[in-house]
Amino acid sequence: MTNQNVVVSDVKGMAISVTVTNQTLLSSSVPKPVGVPGGCITISRNKLLRLETGGGGGTRMISAAWVDSMRASSPPRIKSNTTTASLSVTQDQSSWTLNHPSALSMFEQITSASKGKQIVMFLDYDGTLSPIVEDPDQAFMSNEMRKAVRDVARYFPTAIVSGRCRDKVYSFVKLAELYYAGSHGMDIKGPSKCHKYKNENEAVFYQPASEFLPMIQEVYEILLEKTKSVPGAKVENNKFCVSVHFRCVEEKSWDTLAELVSSVLNEYPKLRSTQGRKVLEIRPTIKWDKGKALEFLLESLGYANSNEVFPVYIGDDRTDEDAFKVLRDRGQGFGILVSKVPKETNASYSLQEPSEVKGFLQRLVKWKRLSMPMQYIRKRV
Ligand SMILES: [Mg+2]
């Protein structure tokens, strides 16, 4: 069962362990909850059965499960004088870092693995290139970050893959030489500037969920109206999906907001919800995600069945896990999770925050420049 963002991993008597794949769903700065090993929370069997039932009675239980996982991933801060708890968190952090080392400290190993292959760069936006901020409309990227991305795109095909509407993410990034996959990959467009890596006569444009546009608009308008009663709630129309932001909503109102979203969703069986960081996202039930977008873009670039490609995907969100998994399954390139805290992930490496992402991109450019013949560098710089 994968609906409502819970994955059943074990059944023992009356209790069922549920893996929360995004442990810090509503908090990017809190440590992993002590006493929740492996990122599991327990939901009673009865509750889960009611969850599966759906319908009117199921609405409350579904939203309760959302909020349960939100709370499980947003525990109160652990006081510094609780020695045992601190030790446990430290141990947990160090074993996670061992399995997902910093992409900066492993830079040489990464670049040597890419030798002889074409690096293709995939970048999430929020929390990866820009900091997570209270108001999603203010999630600007710095000029230094923009320069780093621009430089990377001079040497490697580069795509921005975001849950945001494509136009919106473009208005933040403002680089015409990139590929953009907005709405979780459901709205893909190639560079508007000439790109040397792609047949310039063949424009890339793909919208696998276009038939859902009227429905998404309708749900957006309903949610916009209904959520007015919840202070701080923000609804964002991302064209092929709708985001309901919890970031500015007091925790005591999470249940109300989640129930409200769930009750609207109940009327639209062709839509489903996924959770991001402090956000519920409503999207079409089609089998399309950031991982599919990555595969589509690799194919567009002529690397569908090639061993000569080395895709690198950097993201911070659970929706990026689909892309990390694709890379892991293909055995090509690797994923880098942006996170300060341990999370269950298919990424191979980690970076703590956007400033480290910038450092990684800058280092990649420097490495590439140094590996090129001098006359070619002079021509391009
Ligand atoms: Mg993100």
Automatic annotation (TrEMBL):
Q: What class of enzyme is it?
A: hydrolase
On whether tRNA-binding is a keyword of this UniProt record, the answer is: no
Q: Which GO terms describe its biological process?
A: trehalose biosynthetic process
**InterPro entries, alphabetized:** HAD-like_sf, HAD-SF_hydro_IIB, HAD_sf, OTSB-like, Trehalose_PPase
Q: In which pathway does it act?
A: Glycan biosynthesis; trehalose biosynthesis
- Source domain of life is Eukaryota
Sorted alphabetically, the keyword list is:
Hydrolase, Stress response
Q: Does the keyword Glycosyltransferase apply?
A: no
Return the EC number: 3.1.3.12
Q: Which reaction does it catalyse?
A: alpha,alpha-trehalose 6-phosphate + H2O = alpha,alpha-trehalose + phosphate
One GO MF term on file is: trehalose-phosphatase activity
Role description: Removes the phosphate from trehalose 6-phosphate to produce free trehalose. Trehalose accumulation in plant may improve abiotic stress tolerance.
Q: What is the designated name of this protein?
A: Trehalose 6-phosphate phosphatase
Which taxonomic lineage is given here?
Eukaryota, Viridiplantae, Streptophyta, Embryophyta, Tracheophyta
